[in-house]
TrEMBL record:
The lineage of its organism: Bacteria, Pseudomonadati, Pseudomonadota, Gammaproteobacteria, Pseudomonadales. One of its GO terms (cellular component) is membrane. The chain crosses the membrane at residues 6-24, 31-55, 61-83, 95-124, 165-184. Keywords: Membrane, Transmembrane, Transmembrane helix. The keyword Transmembrane applies. The keyword Manganese does not apply. This is Peptidase A24. Residues 8-124 form the Prepilin type IV endopeptidase peptidase domain. One of its GO terms (molecular function) is aspartic-type endopeptidase activity. InterPro entries: Prepilin_IV_endopep_pep.
Length: 186
């Protein structure tokens, strides 16, 4: 039941992350906060015998929550160091931490490893990724021109401040999708 709930929440959110990071190199804090709030509802609902964690007894629930918080805290700490060194974006770090909360019961190490591998593949395919970004940005702008009332901002790829590096939200989404579709219960 937890996997179904996680998929219902995470699949649309990760689709948004892919589009937003690919076009604008931005992962919105609002999305991260919504994902955090929805995860926090799980243990709270379990206290009332509701939701996917309802079957866990008191100590089982506490163990699950502490395990998830521990994993997310470590990722947040390492991510903060990498952000301070200019290696990753703040949105990527926050999204990774909240994904660790969601995916801790399904295979946290799987998520982290697949995310790292996906990031490596994105780095190897950076020229293709740059072409894909340009194509998607052009298509998005054409859509915006057809619907001027939407006031769609120009994607980062099409501006003078064309971003360098990898939109790591794609790698995070790949790791999360893999973990959701092929969970390893530990």
């Amino acid at each position: 039941m937890y996997t179904t709930y996680a998929m219902l929440v995470l699949l649309p959110a990760l689709a948004w992350v892919i589009c937003s990071d690919l076009l604008y190199r931005r992962i919105h804090n609002t999305l991260v906060l919504i994902l955090l709030a929805l995860w926090l509802l799980l243990p709270l609902a379990a206290l009332f015998g509701l939701g996917p964690f309802a079957a866990l007894a008191g100590n089982g629930l506490l163990y699950q929550v502490l395990r998830a918080l521990c994993g997310a805290s470590i990722v947040l700490l390492v991510g903060f160091v990498l952000f301070s060194l200019g290696r990753v974006g703040a949105g990527d770090v926050k999204l990774m931490a909240v994904m660790c909360l969601w995916l801790s019961g399904l295979g946290l190490m799987t998520f982290l490893i697949v995310t790292a591998l996906a990031g490596g593949l994105l780095a190897l395919g950076l020229p293709l990724l740059t072409m894909l970004e340009g194509f998607c940005a052009q298509a998005w702008m054409k859509f915006g021109q057809r619907h001027p009332r939407l006031a769609i901002p120009t994607p980062m790829v099409l501006t003078e401040d064309c971003p360098q590096g990898i939109p790591y939200g794609l790698a995070i989404a790949a790791g999360a999708f893999y973990t959701l579709l092929f969970p390893i219960h530990s």
